[in-house]
Every structure is written in structure tokens, then in C-alpha cells.
Design brief:
The chain is mainly alpha-helical. Among the domains are: about 60 residues; about 100 residues, Tetratricopeptide repeat domain (Serine Threonine Protein Phosphatase 5, Tetratricopeptide repeat, Alpha Horseshoe), CATH 1.25.40.10. It is built from 17 helices and three strands. α3 runs parallel beside α5 and α7 packs parallel to α9.
Length: about 325
């Protein structure tokens, strides 16, 4: 990475100020700085202004921003706010937060019925809740599929929409060729789309192309460095690549970034179990249980009873055999890699 773009945004009812500065990494020189004052309805124009200014000052040619160029209608600012709230909540991968995200996506669509990214977010939320078993498959699947297809229909040049459709095809339709096509298209439209890189990484992992998968998930993490799921996925792909020590180190770093993100703990359970480190695995189970509380008191009593009679190895195997162990984590762990 040669440059870092830092920025901040301040918003009142009708206006937004975005301040940005470009810093050269090598010597920490501030190459360029600018502030933009705009009406909140013109956020897409601000994005284009920023892209053009950065390209000019660092003297590079950026790929055409197709997602922006093909959007002619201004986004309703309140719909955009609702969409961002939905994105924030969905990315928590917490059942209650994801359920709430659906409300915000639906509010965005009530304000702007043709806002394609809101359909993409809606599809992703239903997909996650299907994995959490919050909704039964016969309810969640038709909704996620309909929203994903509607997103692509309304946003054929929108990277987020193709990524959402790719996840639908990969995780639920098992249309691997179609998923690969959608992820590739999403990346073509926006090379910084982390969820598209992540989806392609999982496609490659399913195909046992672990080195390529690891490379792709690193691109996802590079596009979204603070994302808990991207950092956890790197650890998981390291494990699949036979690099267990690195995987544990990476997952520990992911947990330090976000101790309450469940997938990092689950992946550690899997790694420790594969190594026969059952005490470590059980400790991660305890950590996971404290986050999600997905087991009933009766189930916990059963696990403790098995431990008392036979030790933690059989108890842990009983834990991992439970559907609840996978329900807590969302779509990624349902793949047989």
C-alpha cells in the first residue's frame, strides 16, 4: 500500500461536510487535503469528486466507476440513512441485530422502491437469519432469493447487488458456476468489494484451491481491514491450507479486534479439536457460549454431565455435533470444505 486516504464526515439535517487527506505511507507526507460541503442528497456526486481529485493528485488512472456513472437518480437522503443503519446492523451477525436490519432496509425501500443496494442488503439479512434458524427455510429462502434477484434486476451495474446474488447462488442454490460468475462481475464493477472477494474465496475453498482462496480472502481483508468476519476468514483459510499455527495466531488477532464476534471462536474450536487440544477447544466453547447463549440450560447440563463422566473430549464432541453450534455463526461455516 503506497497511500492511505483518511477522512471524516459531519452531517446536520440538510448538509454534510466531508474532509479527506491523502498520505504517502513511505514518509508520512500529506500529499493532498480537501473539504467538501454538499446537500445530503448529493452524496454520490461527492464520491465522484473525491475519486477524481485523488486520481489527479497521485497521477494514476482509475478504472471507470460504473456503479456511480450509471446512477442518475439522486438517492433519497433518509432512505440512504436507513440503508446505512441496515448495513451496520447486518454486519454484526447477531440474530437480533440482523432482524432489526431488515426493518431499516424495508424503510429504505418504502422511501425509494427502486433502490437496488437495499434489496441486496435485504437478501443478505434473510440469508443470515436462515442460517441462524430464526426463520424456517420455507420462509427465509424465498425472501432471500427474491430480494437477491430483484437487486440484480434493478442494479445490473451495481457491485453490491452481484455480490449478494453470488452468495445466494453459492450458499443456498449450490450453483457454483453461477456464484463464481456473479462474484467475478462484482469485482469487475468494484475491485474493492470485500464481500465479493470473500465470496470468491469461499468458492475457491470449496474447490479445494486453498492457496488461491487465501489470496482472495486477503484481498477482502485489505479492502475492509477492521472487518471481524474478514479477519476470521483469513484464519479459517490458513487452517484449510495446512498452516495451523498461523491460523491460531490470526484468529487470536481477530478476537483481540472484536472479542464478541462468534466465528473467530468457532474456528478456533475447530482447529483445537483437530489437534486434540480439547481443553483449549472447550475454553473457546465457553467463550462462544458467553457471547451467544445458544444452548439451553438442559443442554448445558447434559454437556457437563458427559464431562463429569468421560472428560471434555466426549463433551466437546457432543457440543460440535449439535446443530446449535453451527447456527450461531451464519452461512460461512455451513460449507463442506
Amino acid at each position: 500500500m503506497d497511500y492511505i486516504l483518511e477522512g471524516s464526515a459531519r452531517k446536520d439535517t440538510q448538509r454534510i461536510r466531508i474532509s479527506a487527506q491523502l498520505i504517502r505511507v513511505e514518509d508520512q507526507t500529506h500529499v493532498w487535503a480537501q473539504s467538501y460541503d454538499r446537500d445530503v442528497g448529493n452524496l454520490l456526486e461527492v464520491q465522484k469528486d473525491l475519486g477524481a481529485a485523488i486520481a489527479q493528485h497521485i497521477q494514476i488512472s482509475l478504472a471507470p466507476q460504473k456503479n456511480l456513472a450509471r446512477i442518475t437518480d439522486q438517492v433519497d437522503p433518509e432512505a440512504y440513512d436507513d440503508f446505512l443503519k441496515g448495513e451496520y446492523l447486518r454486519n454484526k451477525f447477531n440474530p437480533e441485530a440482523v432482524k432489526k436490519s431488515i426493518e431499516f432496509y424495508q424503510q429504505a425501500l418504502e422511501r425509494n422502491p427502486t433502490y437496488a443496494p437495499a434489496y441486496a442488503g435485504l437478501a443478505e439479512s434473510y440469508e443470515v437469519l436462515l442460517d441462524f434458524s430464526v426463520f424456517p427455510p420455507n420462509e427465509a429462502y424465498p425472501r432471500s432469493e427474491a430480494a437477491a434477484r430483484k437487486a440484480v434486476e434493478l442494479g445490473p451495474e451495481n457491485s453490491e447487488c452481484h455480490a449478494a446474488f453470488g452468495w445466494q447462488l453459492l450458499a443456498y442454490d449450490r450453483d457454483f458456476a453461477g456464484a463464481k460468475r456473479e462474484f467475478r462481475r462484482a469485482i469487475e464493477l468494484n475491485p474493492s468489494n470485500s464481500e465479493a472477494h470473500e465470496g470468491l474465496a469461499w468458492y475457491l475453498a470449496i474447490r479445494k484451491q486453498f492457496d488461491a482462496s487465501l489470496s482472495e480472502v486477503r484481498k477482502a481483508q485489505g479492502a475492509d481491514p477492521l472487518s471481524p468476519i474478514m479477519n476470521a476468514d483469513i484464519g479459517n483459510m490458513l487452517f484449510y491450507s495446512g498452516r495451523g499455527d498461523e491460523a491460531i495466531q490470526q484468529l487470536r488477532a481477530a478476537i483481540s479486534l472484536d472479542p464478541d464476534f462468534p466465528a473467530s471462536h468457532y474456528y478456533l474450536i475447530k482447529i483445537y479439536q483437530s489437534r486434540g487440544s480439547y481443553e483449549d477447544a472447550f475454553q473457546e466453547f465457553v467463550n462462544l457460549q458467553s457471547i451467544n447463549g445458544q444452548f439451553s440450560k438442559e443442554k448445558l447440563s447434559e454437556i457437563k454431565s458427559i464431562h463429569a463422566k468421560s472428560g471434555w473430549k466426549p463433551a466437546l464432541q457432543d457440543v460440535l455435533a449439535s446443530d446449535n453450534a453451527t447456527r450461531a455463526l451464519g452461512r460461512k461455516i455451513r460449507f463442506s470444505v
